[in-house]
Amino acid sequence: MLRIISGLERPDAGSVWLDPGDTVGYLAQYPAEDLALSVRESLLRGAGTTGALMRTVTELEQRMPYASGEDLDRLLGEYATVQAEFERLGGYELEDRIVGVVRGLEIDARLDGPVGTLSGGNKTKLGLARLLLSGATVLLLDEPTNYLDLPALLWLERWVRESQAACVIVSHDRRFLDETAGKILEIDAQQHTLRAWPGNYSAYADARSREKEKQLSRWLDQQARKKRIEEDIRRTKEQARGVESRTNLDTARRYAKKVAAKAKAREGRLERDLARNEVEQPVRTWGLHLTGLGKGDIDDDRTVLHVSGLHAGYPGHDVLRGVDLRVHGRDRLALLGANGSGKSTLLRCLTGMAEEDIRTAGFDLRTSARADVRITSGEVRLGSGVRLGILSQEAAELPRDQTVYDVFRAGTHMYEDEARAYLHKFLFGEDDVRKRVESLSYGQRAKLALALLVLGEANFLVLDEPTSHMDMAAIEAMETAIADYTGPLLVVSHDRYFLDRIGITRTEVMEDGRLHRVEGIAEYEVGFRSA
Prior knowledge:
By secondary structure, the chain is α/β, with parallel strands linked by helices. It has helices at residues 2-5, 39-46, 48-63, 69-88, 94-104, 120-133, 150-162, 174-180, 201-246, 250-277, 343-350, 404-409, 416-424, 442-455, 472-484, 496-501, 520-529; strands spanning 24-27, 138-142, 166-170, 183-187, 194-198, 303-314, 317-328, 332-336, 358-360, 374-382, 388-391, 460-464, 489-492, 506-511, 514-518.
């Protein structure tokens, strides 16, 4: 729908209408960038007409010192015209806007550096920055919070609230929707229709839940009434037939026929009443089923992970600088911090332990593109009897040339029918299991990784951004399963709604390569909200 609104695709029927003068800006979920451009040039191109005028002003300023005579007069005239239009459009504030957006989103890059050197997260931020600078009056944001750390996410929340542009947001970040949305548009997956709900996400979720409960209650009442009347009609018919078959008296037989006719008439009235007032049976959707995480078998006071004086990073660059961390069997630990602060580096250090103690999400992290993490000093140690289960952001690096079925069977001894039934719980249908991993969406890859993790029977779960690319129903199923899981848990996530729902008991923040404890996510947010 966003691609149709933005003009990238044509509808089969109907039309998209905008007020005269309105323009649409579209942030795709995976924005494409010209990797050879500098960051500044990419941002200027995103700034539309104003950015083009700035490039022209700069080009003319560079050419004029080398011109003379008629050429100089022509350049001066062109410069005056372009400069006047540039000033009218507020061009002299553009540089400040560029700096403000780059700082607000914390794009970790030099403005004169090439786009191709940016990380995936910074490329996403760059695409968002281009859109915010575009001056479009209607902004279409497809999963804008993907890859954003909490400081950038809070900045974007504030920007959307204060923006004069209309914003249409596709997002599974429920807290972000609570903070920014005034209306929720829901597409029904079965009917393919659109319905508007007033308020933010929480208001929508409450109203939808109440409506479903009311519909279920009405449907159950209707079914009970229908069953009661049908049973009464059946008994009446049987009695009439019994009387008619047991007597030869004409009066009794006529009476039995009248009773049977009345029962038939009641049956017809019931059918007509149901046709006019029938309550539709609530639709049961095919949802993610997570029942295999277990209850954990580790005592509350046992140490499951001990990290002491850890220095680690990549060749020539230490990311972690003296990390100390102890996780016990009772801990449900949230690990927060800005992108690049060292959270994922710390998790990758865990993969350096004995392979038999690790239940990775279907692939060997040591072979991934970022497996060159090196521990230069310190210690990382698992407790006795601990079986570590890791759900990593590297789910995108599952073997791309293999099928879903082949990747899954490599990690299990199930028969084919068992494997298919198991994958069905993770929303892989008959056709999906034969697809190659490279053809799967990021959400499907994450579900495949999750299926392998659940299969691993781990008793200490480490989850790195587990809700990324998951749809809302899958996230809610994961929340329920993790809330029921009673073993130790370490989760890296910027999804505040998710962290609230799974019952985090302890929060650590990674800053400058070190950890420090805070009293919950709210305390961590305070400094950024007041900034």
